[in-house]
Design brief:
With about 180 residues, this protein is α+β, with helices and mostly antiparallel strands. The chain has helices spanning about 15-25, 35-40, 45-50, 85-90, 115-130, 145-150; strands at about 5-10, 55-60, 65-75, 95-105, 135-140, 155-160, 170-175. It is globular, with a radius of gyration of 15 Å.
């Protein structure tokens, strides 16, 4: 049985975290790296380590010390466009904690890592004291993603129900604890 340790990322973890993130956008999303969507993946230190109200967590396989999962949080709400205007208004930057990059390598899935990462990210948001809501969006085409988030959060907008289907993204709010 594998044991995992979850902690805040350090500069030494960034190459491993970046590899998990890039592998996910190529393999699971099928989009590959898209600069306007994935700039934080290339510069995780600037996106998550430097800003005081942001964080990047990593899960390490204790046997090998490898980064096998990531989870991030920042203070940026959903931008309009490409997201619907009402979401940008409901979840403004500064008071919204946005969950990002909750990714687990396939061979380490189904072991509770994503739930543990989300629990730690929610604790970070609560400790900050300035966040009023926790928001995220997911691509329902990624196997397991929609079901996972539905088990933890409430759907606030499903673009598949929009005329023309929007981007096909599902938007969620996670209850603050």
């Amino acid at each position: 049985m594998l044991n995992y340790r979850i902690r805040s990322a350090t500069p030494d973890d960034l190459d491993g975290a970046r590899a998990v993130m890039l592998d996910t956008v190529y393999r699971d999303f099928g989009t590959g790296y898209v600069p306007r969507w994935h700039g934080d993946i290339i510069d995780p230190a600037g996106a998550y380590l430097a800003p005081a109200r942001h964080t990047l967590l990593v899960a390490l396989d204790e046997a090998g010390g490898q980064v096998v999962a990531t989870g991030a949080l920042d203070a940026r709400g959903p931008a309009h466009p490409p997201n619907p205007r009402h979401l940008a208004e409901r979840y403004p930057s500064g008071t919204t904690a946005q969950l990002r990059r909750v990714y687990v390598r396939p061979e380490h899935r189904r072991r509770g890592l994503a739930r543990r990462l989300v629990r730690e990210l929610l604790a970070f948001a609560a400790a900050d004291g300035g966040y009023r809501a926790v928001y995220l969006h997911t691509d329902p085409a990624v196997p397991g993603a929609e079901a996972f988030w539905r088990s933890l959060a409430e759907v606030v907008h499903d673009e598949r129900q929009d005329p023309g289907g929007g981007q096909g993204i599902v938007h969620f709010e996670v209850p603050m604890r």
